[in-house]
Amino acid sequence: MSERTQALGRPISIDEIEEFIIPPEIFDAFNKMIILRLHAGTAIFYLKEVADMAESMGINRNIAFSNHWFDVEQLYQEAGWIVKFESPGYSEGGEPYFTFSKEQRG
Question: Which of 29, 41, 46, 80 is within CB 3.0–4.6 Å of 53 for a Cys-Cys bond?
C-alpha cells in the first residue's frame, strides 16, 4: 500500500476517491499553472500546457489522458474555484483550455 492510502485510516468516501486515483503530480501541475497564470482572480491555460507540466514531473502523458487524470474540474470546484473547460468542436480551430476563477462571494 502507498503512503497515501495508509494515511487515510478509514474507509474512503465516494467523493474522495478521485483524489486517490489521480496522482499528486497532476494536482501539482494544475496548481502551478493556476499560480503562474492567475491575474485579476482568473487563470487561463491550455490543456497542453498542464499536460507538459505534468510530464515534466514524471507523469506519462498517454497514461494520464487514457485514465482521464486531467478531468479535475469537479475537484477544483469543490475546493472553491469556478472551473470551465472549453474544447473546440471538430471543425473549429483552437486548442482546449481551462479557466479557473475565484468563486464570487456575496
Answer: 29
Residue 27 is predicted with a pLDDT of 96
pLDDT digits (tens, 9 = 90+) for 10-35: 787 777 776 668 999 999 999 999 99
What nine digits make up the cell of 75? 475537484
Task: Give me Rg for the CA atoms of the chain.
Answer: 15
- Inter-CA distances, 10 with 1, 4, 15, Å: 14, 12, 14
Pairing relation of β-strands 97-102 and 42-46?
antiparallel
Query: What's the order of all strands across the beta sheet hosting 97-102?
Result: 42-46, 97-102, 81-86
Predicted TM-score (pTM) above 0.70: yes
For residue 95, what are the domain limits?
A: 17-102
| CA atoms lying within 13 Å on the CB side of residue 24 | 4
